Fold this sequence. Notes:
six-stranded antiparallel β-sheet; Regulatory protein YycH-like domain-containing protein; YycI-like
Amino acid sequence: MQWGQIKNLFIVCFLILNIxxxxxxxxxxxxxxxxIPITSREEQLEFNISGLDNLxxxxxxxxxxxxxxxxxxxYAQKELxxxxxxQIVVIDDFYLFSRFxxxxxxxxxxxxxxxxxxxxxxxxxxxxxxxxxARVLVYFQSIEHPVFYNSNAILLIHLNSEGHITQYEQTQLxxxxxxxxxxxxIKQYDAVYRLYHHLNALRTGDTIxxxxxxxxxxxxLPNGEQLLxxxxxxxxNNSQHHFVNAxxxxxxxxxxxxxxxNIISLVDLLESEHDDNLKFYHLEEEREDLLSKITQTLxxxxxxxxxxxxx
Length: 311
């Protein structure tokens, strides 16, 4: 046999050997990969998000709630006339502005003190937050549970430098129609799961610090009616709030400008007032003076919020 043929035979043999060895290597890698466990989406959530043990495993139900703007002049005229030491103006029937004759000392930590003693239906509101730079306490109306971020169901209480109440603005919703059927709600864990996997609203390392049930506006109708939907409030890192529709599972977008927008709306309402849409209670000074004082307080709040946002 000639040397050239022998050389070609060796080359072919080495080529076959290399192919065999490569196949063995690939098979070994595939076997090794098969031994690596696949992490489930639940395990990913539990590994990356803390505080899941703060979630309740209870099965909850809640109804949809049909509401309408509360007409102060129609439903609460006598009650407003009995509120002490304050001058009140109601604009367009639905927006109440009140300024105390003298700042009122009120211990908000004392359970014996009732907001309803000085503020109409004050017991129907739940404390939410403080806009510290403007010394404003924010309360959300409760209808079984808090109504989150709804400009028609809010109470803003202004404090002076000594922590005494000087004035407040208030809106309310009233329930209309018959009771709706109870709806089954997604579990709190499912709400967090959707926030993490489907909505990308949570980040690795976040901690769930609380979860609570409330309501969020689902539909607004031209006649002032609103359909409120059960909503999970998922609190993250003790400060952030994510709101998840507790029936359908989608989230409601966050509005970081909610309080500022409400202040602007109230100022616009005061500045566009006319005789036909004003109703005063306990008026003891010139109406223009009262409206001016209320407006200036709101403008001061607006300026303080804007200045802090710029920093």
